[in-house]
Amino acid sequence: MAEQPPVLSADGVPGADPEIRQLRDKLAEAYRLVALGQLVTGVVHEINNPIGSIVSNNEVSLRALSSLKQKLDSARENGEPPPQKAIDLVETLLSLAAVDKIACERISAVVRSLKTFSRVEERDLRTARVCELLRDAGKLVDCQYRRRIELQIEIEEMIEIECYPQLLSQVFLNLLVNAGQAIENEGRITIRAASVSGSAPAEVEISIEDTGKGIAAEHRSRIFEAGFTTKPVGVGTGLGLALSRKLIEETHHGRIWFTSEEGRGTTFHVRLPVRQPRPSQL
Amino acid sequence: MSDSKPPKVLLVDDEEMVITSIRAFLSLETEYEILAHTKPEDALRRLEEGPVDVIVTDYLMPRMNGLHLLAEAKKRQPEAARVLLTGHADKQSAIEAINAVGLYQYLEKPWDNAQLLLVINGAIERTRLLRGLAQKVDELDAAHGQLKEAQRRLIRAFL
């Protein structure tokens, strides 16, 4: 029988002292909410347009349908074929219905990606598709930065790994938000994921590359420290990368590192085992 | 409205769905000519081609935001009324910039069709009055010039 993975606290680390564990849980939870909060304006904007369209289309459709009915009734009474105006109205109604479909899909996609991050209870180790976790995180970040940052996704579709999906999503979201904040005007974020060839045990590598301002040489040794941030109050918590490293190295037995060039950009690399070692293998 | 041609509404939003919805609404409710663009640069080029009565634009768009577009539009057609249709998140920046671009009105998304129509109607009325006034001033200037010329000729005839 397979051995059970260890019980995790909210920051993904097997807990020791219950009091410390509880505090750490609260801190991790607060950080998760801060990370989500940073994306709220983008989400609001992303949902606003489709809602505006749906509300407007519904109003227009009701009026168009009643006008269409009148025209068809009057044509029938006079034994005439449907007038051109009625056909135009049907065309308009068809185009509005098509817009409504797209609008509903847009809202559903945002809500789906938000759900990935708000599922507090999902702390079980399971097999997940890396591409889905990255796409959900990418979708939320895209809502926020779409108008100035191009998001490129180059992912091998079928890669599946054993992981704590919600915790891993939190790392991806954090790295993507950092990448978005590093780009001051326009730029590009590229998300890549591929199997590492010849690795034993099997591994996958995920990278998030931005064309932002890069990390200053004097800050590079400190960026994974808890409480270290170069961002203004209200933007950076100084916890994102510290927590991300814990989640990758201690929870998922992987590695996280970066390469950066000032003025050119930064790439964060995450390497993860496809199967998590069982406690006896540690 | 004194002008006999149907009013022209220039609609700019990078989201096709917003344009489709507003266009369908205005087409059903009014006789206005709707000119729509998803790229602000194309909208500016359209302004070079002839007068429009009102410009309704989104705020957050790639490459050029709505206020930048309206500032450029003001240089090209100062009397065309400018309306900003903004998401809640950009409201503050919109309010701050109202004076900079001489905004006629700003509306929030999700928009209300009745309110949108009211604003567009008011904007068209204002533009047409401004253009009518400018035309009257030109006519007065021309009449004044003719009077001066006639006066000069009269004086010359008597001297």
How is this structure best described in words?
With 282 residues, chain A is α+β, with helices and mostly antiparallel strands. Chain A is 49% helix and 17% strand. A five-stranded mixed sheet of chain A has the order 2-4-5-7-6. Chain A is elongated and about 85 Å long. Chain B is of the alpha/beta class. Chain B has one domain: Response regulator (Rossmann fold), CATH 3.40.50.2300. Helix content of chain B is 57%, strand content 16%. Chain B has a five-stranded parallel sheet, sandwiched between helices. In chain B, helix 2 (40-49) runs parallel beside helix 3 (66-76). Chain B is elongated and about 75 Å long. At the A-B interface, helix 2 and helix 3 of A face helix 1 of B.
Characteristic key phrases:
heterodimer, A: 282 residues, alpha+beta, 5-stranded mixed beta sheet, two-stranded antiparallel ribbon, 6 helices, 17% strand, B: 159 residues, alpha/beta, Rossmann fold, 5 strands, 57% helix
How would you sum up this structure in a few lines?
The complex is a heterodimer of chains A (282) and B (159). Chain A contains six helices and seven strands; from the N terminus they run H-H-H-E-H-E-E-H-E-E-H-E-E. Chain A is of the alpha+beta class.
Helix share bin of chain B: 55-70%
Shape of chain A: elongated
CATH topology of chain B: the name is: Rossmann fold
Which bin fits the share of residues in helices of chain A? Answer: 40-55%
Q: Which residue ranges of chain A are poorly predicted, with pLDDT under 50 across at least 5 consecutive positions?
A: none
* Order of the strands making up the biggest sheet of chain B: 2-1-3-4-5
Let me know the largest β-sheet of chain A: 5 strands, mixed
Q: Give the strand line-up of the largest sheet of chain A.
A: 2-4-5-7-6
Mean pLDDT level of chain A: 84
CATH class category of chain B? Alpha Beta
Helices of chain B, by number, come to 6
